[in-house]
Every structure is written in C-alpha cells, then in structure tokens.
Amino acid sequence: MAQRNILRLLQTVKTGYSISGRSYGVNVVKNCRSYYSKHLYQCCRQMSQQQGTPPQTPPTGPKILSTLFPQTAIDAKAEEEAREEKQREEQEKKEKEKSNKRMKIGMYVFAVSAGVMAVWTVIDFGAPETDAEGKVIEDEFSNLPIVEQYFRRMWKSLTYYQKIIQEPSAQRLLPDPLKYPYIQPKYTLVLEMKGLLVHPDWTYKTGWRFKKRPGVDQFLEQLARHFEIVVYTADQGITVFPILDALDPNGYIMYRLVRDATHFVDGHHVKNLDNINRDLKRVIVVDWDPNSVKLHPDNAFVIPKWDGNDHDTTLLELVAFLKTVATSDVDDVREVLHYYREFSNPLEKFKDNLRKLQEIEEKDKEEKQKQGTPAVKKWSPSLFQKK
After folding, report:
1. From CA 23, how far away is CA 19, in angstroms rounded?
2. What is the CA radius of gyration of the chain?
3. What is the per-residue pLDDT across 177-198, written as a single tens digit (0 to 9) for each?
4. Judging by DSSP bridges, how do beta strands 300-302 and 283-287 pair with one another?
5. How far is residue 345's CA from residue 360's CA, in Å, rounded to a whole number?
6. Is cis: bond before 177, omega within 30 of 0?
7. Mean pLDDT to the nearest integer, 215-241
8. Which spans in 210-266 are helix H?
9. Parts of the chain belonging to CATH 3.40.50.1000
10. pLDDT at residue number 66
11. Nearest by Cα to 285 from 169, 152, 193, 383
12. How confident is the model at residue 335 (pLDDT cuts 50, 70, 90)?
C-alpha cells in the first residue's frame, strides 16, 4: 500500500495536474514541498516497519528537493549566482566611485598647485631688480603697466635660462692656437670619452667603475705628436675630470669640454665645432654616436661603440689611420673622411688600402733593384682616393 502511494505521488509530481486547461504541475511542486516531503517520509517509514528495517531520519530538504525537483535546485543556484553577481557589481561600482573621487581630488590639488606655481613664477621672475640699498632699478619695461611689466620680465628671464640650457657656455670654447716659439699641432683631434676611451661598468660589489680600453695609452702617446687632442663629451664635468686625470696622467689631452659646451638640439647634446675656434679643414671628430656630430657630419669619423671587450684592437687600427692622415699633410681632412664614410667599416677599408700600398711599395723596390733608378712613388694619396 505504501509503495503504491509513493508511485502515485511520483507520477503526480511528474505529470502535474491540469485544472481549467492549464498545467499546475510545477506550481504544485513549489507550493507543496513540505507536504510531499512529510508524506513521503511517512510512507517510507511504514514500508520499513513492515520489512523490519529501522526507520531512518528524513533526508535534508535541499537534498531530497534536488532529487525530486531538479528544476527547484537549478532555480536556487541561479538565484544565488545572480545575488553574488549583483553584489560584485555593486562593489565594483563603489570602487569606481571612490577612484573617480580620488582622481577629482588629485586634479583639484594639481590645478591649485599649478596656479600657485604660476603666480609665484610671475612674481619672482617678473619683479624689477634692486640695488644694494633696495631701490628699484629701472629697465626697458618700467614705463609699462604694472601687470605687463611683470609678464615681460618673466618672459625675458625664462628665455635667458632656456638659452643657457640649449647653447654652449661660451662662443669660443678653446683659446687661440699657440704662437711661436710654442708648437701648435697642425690638426685637432676631438674624442668622445664614454664608449670610445672608457666603458662604464656596474656591479653590486664595486658600484660604478670605468674600464680603460685596450691600447688607449699607446693611442694617446702616439697621436699627441701629430694632433691637438681634445675630449668633447656630453657628460658632466664632475664625472669627466676625475676619469681623465686617472686615464691621462701624462697630460696628452690638451683640453676638456663637457656638457655645458654642447648645443641641446632635439633632446640631444650636440657637439658644435663652430665654437672650438679651430679651422674645420683640420679638425677630425671620432665618435660612435652620429647624433652627437650631426651639425658637422663631414668632420666625423664614426666607429662602433666599445662594449668592454678585452680583446678589442680598434684604437691601434685608428692610430695607423690618423697618423697616415697627419704625415700625408692632407690640406682638408673632410675629403678623406667623406671617402671613408661611404664604407660600412672604414677602418677595414683603410687596412685593405694599406695592404695594397705595401704591395705597390714592394713592386717599386723590385723595379728599382732591376733598373737601378729610383721609382716614383705616390703612395699617400692612394690611401684616400677611389680606384
């Protein structure tokens, strides 16, 4: 009997009741959960007593409901997810409102600070100068309205400071060439420091150190006989001077030009050779950065930047090239530099020309020995001309 009641109950839940042509199966399930649960428990208890099985406690509501009424479990889960989603959206909305509020406060603070700074700039830079007794010194703006006076003086001061940053500290960076009886080299060699003569290196143990390039001592010693050597760099003097003191104890470097001697162009410190007070026909700039010499590319000899390799021989090769230029008594070095600038590796091209020159010299010696007459040799121009 109890088993038949359970089957009838399940059949009723599955099919639902049709009242007035409308299906109320789901509504009956939703509205009569407690009734069906209780009735089902009683039926199961009767069956267990008849079979001698001890009664068990009724399963929990959600478990039996999820078994008998899966749609109810799905609806409850969906409601829980919707509630969590709503809470998450509300939390995000609150965080966004707080972020916008903080942003507005920050913008207000920035605007007020900028306004105060602008007022201070006008007052500080636009105020007239005074003498030692505190009396106002009249200038070209003294006859203008007071507000216009301050703005014009401020603009003049800002323009002056901009000029200091962008232009060299002096129009003549080097003194006049030496007069007799002192010896003034015919050519001027302008060198970069970092990446050419030294390489900056940093470690946790030692901090910043500058590594000397292989061959730099021979480089300076041999070229000082033929060139007026000048170090021209965009680094600050407080960094450059101690390094050069240790690098050049013999004083082969005659002059040192640092950042305040450069032009600030397009965000880059550029070496302006117009201010070094030397004939540009006899000036050679050796650098690894083309932007540093973009105002005078015809005087530039650009080589790769040294990365700290201990087996580097570039300076020794450069010595051979520069000594050849000096001993050949070239009138305008820009013609020579222009020729070698056409090659991706100018020093390699120079070595190739030097090898060809040696072959020509060997042939000339052989002809001289055979003929017994001196051979005419024009070897110097062959290093600097196309064939």
Report:
1. 7
2. 46
3. 999 888 899 999 999 999 999 9
4. parallel
5. 23
6. no
7. 95
8. 216-223, 237-247
9. 187-342
10. 53
11. 193
12. very high
Neighbouring C-beta atoms of residue 265, cutoff 10 Å? 13
Which residues make beta-bridge pairs with 263? 270
Give the global pTM.
0.60
Contacts of 17 (CB under 8 A, 6+ apart): 23, 24, 25, 28
| Helix, strand and coil percent figures for the chain, each rounded to 5 | 55, 15, 30
Judge whether 152 and 141 are in contact, CB under 8 Å.
yes
| Mean pLDDT, the chain, whole residue set | 80
On the question of pLDDT at 29 being above 50, the answer is no
Q: Residue 123: CB partners within 8 Å, gap ≥ 6?
A: 150
CA end-to-end span of the chain: 120
Residue 319 reports pLDDT greater than 50: yes
Amino acid, res. 154 = M
Q: What percent of the chain has pLDDT over 70?
A: 75
Residues counted in the chain? 387
Tokens of 304: 């790769």
CA dist list (Å): 99 to 88, 92, 93, 290, 297: 16, 10, 10, 47, 53
DSSP 178: P
Q: What is the CATH number of domain 187-342?
A: 3.40.50.1000
